[in-house]
Amino acid sequence: MKIVTFPAVGLLVIAGSAHLLADPLSAASKTLNPVKVPDAKIGDAPYRFNGAVISGNYRGSGFCAWNRKTFFSAAHVVFDDEAGLWSSPPVWYPHSNAAVLDDDQSIKTRGYYRWTNYSELVALDGNNGDAFGRDVILAYAFKNLISGSPAKLNLRGTSDLRNDIKSMITGYPAVNAYTGKPIEGYFMHQTGPGVTPYKTYAGNSLTTTLISTGGGNSGGPVWTKNPDVGWTAAGVLVGGLPSESVVYAFSGDINALTRAVTPVIKSDLPHTIDVDRVSTSSRFFLYDHSKTIPDGVPKWTEFPISVGGFEVDDKVQELRLTFKITTHHRGDLQVVLAGPGGFEVLVHNEQGAGKDNLVLKNADFSSFFAGIDPTGKWSLRVQDRLKGDIATVEFVQLEISVDGTAVSAP
């Protein structure tokens, strides 16, 4: 398991073993250090909003905020800076506190939104500098990630954290950066609460020399105490070391991410919208016009779907198909999904005989299209080969997830 924090301004990065970049004893008298949260508090706010986040070989933290179907984490938890690739949507484990994660409780998310220029900043300057100011994602699922209400956002996080306001960081560190000792399992920790003013570092990122955190805690929330609503989410931890932490602090900017994900998590068929400066790992494309297939005619009727909006060099990583065809004899039908470049797969070949309707929901055809450029013309092709039963295509939806490369430095 690779545990990641940014190795900038003396920050810790772990890949198999811990490497402390400062003398832990020098920080003993002035820092707030991670301590384990008692089991009895795990179900209380703000701890119940926390979750462990797994993306391939990457381990991080996250927190359910704004909507019960969404969580925030650090962008570098799902971005491989060495390969310059975005990972597939991560897996969420709600308020864990155990030696091992409970896979029965896990939820694989369906995508995440991020700032479009994050990967470019990493390519230009590595995992430091201005990249901190864009180091956040908003991931989403099609089911609730926690029970109860989500955490409230503090859109004044940038200004509040600069002032004398009580704050606290929570999450799932894998190494205690103060002692250098590994933490076995996935146990929730907190750093603080305390009054620890932050200073501007780069863009939306702030830094403090009064808080220690551990590797693996990247993506965990920094909380601020509001006298009216209690603990509110004011930002995301993006790096930590003994006596030094960096957070991506929330401001009105974060509304661009919530606005982008809003159409996707509604109860009707999801779709994406384009929001300036925001990109996503997956997009939804709809053909939502009802159309009848010629009865008993062995000729394809095409339902075209134009796919676009991805970044340069994005490649298909996952693809899911959803459609509904009403009929009284699904055995009459043949269905093919075709993508750009001549790639296609036979979806249905006259199975089902006289059963009603042909409905697919989230059918996974990733293996047939993985690695191709998603941009261009896709189509569902349908033919009704026997007379006597009218078939009508009610809608078609494609969900395409990508792995995107970083923009090359000049």
Indicate the topology.
Layout: E1 2-3, E2 35-36, E3 50-55, E4 58-64, E5 70-73, E6 79-80, E7 85-86, E8 91-94, E9 107-108, E10 111-115, H1 118-125, E11 137-140, H2 157-162, E12 166-171, E13 189-195, E14 199-202, E15 205-208, E16 221-226, E17 230-241, E18 244-249, H3 255-261, E19 278-280, E20 282-287, E21 291-293, E22 301-307, E23 315-326, E24 333-338, E25 344-349, E26 358-364, H4 366-369, E27 376-384, E28 391-403
Parallel strand pairs: 1-4
Antiparallel strand pairs: 2-13, 3-4, 3-8, 4-5, 5-11, 6-7, 8-9, 10-11, 10-19, 12-13, 12-16, 14-15, 15-18, 16-17, 17-18, 20-28, 21-28, 22-27, 23-26, 23-28, 24-25, 24-27
Helix vs. strand class:
mainly beta
Largest sheet: 9 strands, mixed
Beta-strand proportion: 35-45%
By DSSP (H or I, 4+ residues per run), the number of helices equals 4
Specify Rg, calculated over alpha carbons.
Answer: 24 Å
- Classify the helix fraction into a percent range: under 10%
Strand tally is: 28
* Low-confidence region ranges: 4-29
Report the mean per-residue pLDDT as an integer.
Answer: 88
| Gross geometry | elongated
Distance between the termini: 33 Å
Oligomer: single chain
